[in-house]
Amino acid sequence: MPCIILCADDYGLNSEVNNAINSLVRNGRLNAVSCMAVGNAFTAPALLEAVSEAPLPVEIGLHLTLTEYAPLGAMPKLTEEDMLPQVERLLIKSHLRQIDRSEIHLELERQFDAFETAFGRKPDFVDGHQHVQIFPVIRDEVVNLVVSRMGAAEAGSGWVRCCDSPASDLFLSPNLRAMLLAAMSRRHRARLARAGLRSNDRFYGVNTFDPAQSFRSLMQGWMRKVTRRKGHTLIMCHPGMPGSDPTDPIAARRPDEYSYLASADFVEDLERFEVALAPRAC
Fold this sequence. Notes:
Layout: E1 3-11, H1 15-26, E2 32-35, H2 45-53, E3 59-64, H3 87-95, H4 101-119, E4 125-128, H5 138-150, E5 159-160, H6 167-172, H7 176-194, E6 198-199, E7 202-204, H8 215-226, E8 232-237, H9 254-261, H10 264-272, E9 276-277
Parallel strand pairs: 1-2, 1-8, 1-9, 2-3, 3-4, 4-5, 5-6, 7-8
Helix pairs in contact: 1-2, 4-5
């Protein structure tokens, strides 16, 4: 039976996101959670309690954040009015090599330190808000961080998210954002391999976050693709309770993701497509 890591991103952003993820974890609907150390609601106790009560193993990772929100420390070369740039601007600056490596390195270290302080241990995996971990320049600093703080695979380290999918999937369901992520991820995956770091085999979950689009339909499409593949697949999701956080651009979409993942429909779909939530090494 194919295995998936179903990872809820953005834990720590606000209480609506935290409450939804904690509920899903307790009910065995997630097996990975990625935490934003820069979030206003970043805290460990409730998530650790939910994981201890979960019916299946749940990994807790670090969601490195270099866009949209305030960094943990001063980044005068990247921020404007103490806020990190929008993802489009960071993407352009990274491709033009117009970002300061030392400034990026120090902020990534601060976020890693904050995670360790909160949870009392290293993260099980590392990824990035809006996929910044695969951007040029940044991906090198992420690899350096993970090697120095977590070690290589042979030392029993965690893993780093990669965002590529098989070319046939991209052509069958064209999505320009997914294609861009896949293209950048090929170099990212090669860099991870050279450093001896592990990653997921493939990645799904890219969508437009349109509240009018059925999240169940999207998940069914991703599960259908999983059944055709060997190896381990990561699917990201963004659940949340209804709320009005003005800093969250996808707040309107989160309740649909939460309600589906909490429902009997999700369990029915797992059974229908013969997919299991299981650790990376299943």
